[in-house]
Amino acid sequence: MDAASIRIDSTLLEQHQGRLVRIMGKCQSYDPSSNNSILISNGPITLISNPGEELVVNKNYEIIGKVGTSDLSVRVLSAIELSDNLNLDTAQKLVSYVHKVPELFY
């Protein structure tokens, strides 16, 4: 991907409408009929996947996607499965540091 993306969680969706973002979290649910899933990243985020791109419930992912402007859902461009040992609390701290000291991350 050529475009720059910023790391966020559910609390920052509204501030990043229409932008490319990175989100780390755990898949809580997946509906194969609609290709929608819920990712927990400091709160729930609705993901819209491409047909055939299935997320596994209770697995951790890093999602690169675009935040919608009307409903704050995220259109998935890339989903990378992460280790089951991922510490989501630490991932949330990373999000906070990215926004407190952005010059360290860009």
In terms of topology, how is this protein built?
Blueprint: E1 6-7, E2 20-31, E3 36-40, E4 44-48, E5 60-67, E6 74-81, H1 88-100
Parallel strand pairs: 1-2, 4-6
Antiparallel strand pairs: 2-3, 2-5, 3-4, 5-6
Account of the protein in words:
There is one protein chain. The chain is mainly beta. It has one domain: OB fold (Dihydrolipoamide Acetyltransferase, E2P), CATH 2.40.50. Helices cover 12% and strands 38% of the residues. It contains one helix and six strands. A five-stranded mixed beta barrel has the order 2-3-4-6-5. A hairpin with a 3-residue loop joins strand 3 and strand 4. The chain starts with 5 loop residues before the first strand and ends in a 6-residue tail after the last helix. The relative contact order is 0.23.
Question: What descriptive keywords fit this protein?
Answer:
single chain, 106 residues, mainly beta, OB fold (Dihydrolipoamide Acetyltransferase, E2P), 6 strands
